[in-house]
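Milestone 3.1: sequence recovery, worked example.
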């Protein structure tokens, strides 16, 4: 009259678990990706030791951009990677073909030499990009 719940019946019907549920793993990976994408720009600026100059009046316009940084030692970085004139030209031309409104966002250390910043601007303009912005930090 009652159900037979012996261990031999249950093990025959259920068998070994053959599939792994990956949904929780995918959820965790996507959350970590989102956290990384949000914190990466701040980490890149801090890791290269770029201290932006401060300005009280600045525009808050949004546009597609390529990040160019000039370090205190005069190194020029494009999107966080050390770059030469050829690399900057290639990346700018590729960005301009995707979106002609793309601008260069130049971040220079407050103690970078003026000549190095001008060289970065010159490289950007020689690659065909006419619009750029200088990134500052509000006090």
């Amino acid at each position: 009259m009652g159900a037979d719940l012996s261990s031999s019946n249950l093990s025959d019907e259920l068998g070994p678990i053959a599939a792994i549920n990956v949904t929780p793993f995918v959820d965790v990976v996507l959350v970590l990706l989102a956290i990384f994408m949000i914190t990466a720009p701040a980490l890149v600026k801090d890791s290269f030791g770029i201290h932006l100059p401060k300005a009280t009046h600045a525009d808050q316009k949004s546009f597609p951009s390529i990040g160019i940084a000039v370090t205190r030692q005069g190194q020029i970085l494009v999107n966080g990677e050390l770059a030469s004139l050829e690399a900057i030209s290639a990346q700018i031309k590729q960005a301009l073909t995707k979106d002609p409104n793309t601008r260069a966002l130049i971040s220079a250390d407050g103690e970078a030499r003026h000549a190095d910043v001008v060289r970065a601007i010159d490289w950007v303009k020689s690659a065909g990009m006419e619009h750029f912005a200088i990134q500052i930090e509000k006090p």
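The chain has four helices and five strands. Helices lie at 7-14, 23-47, 85-98, 114-126.
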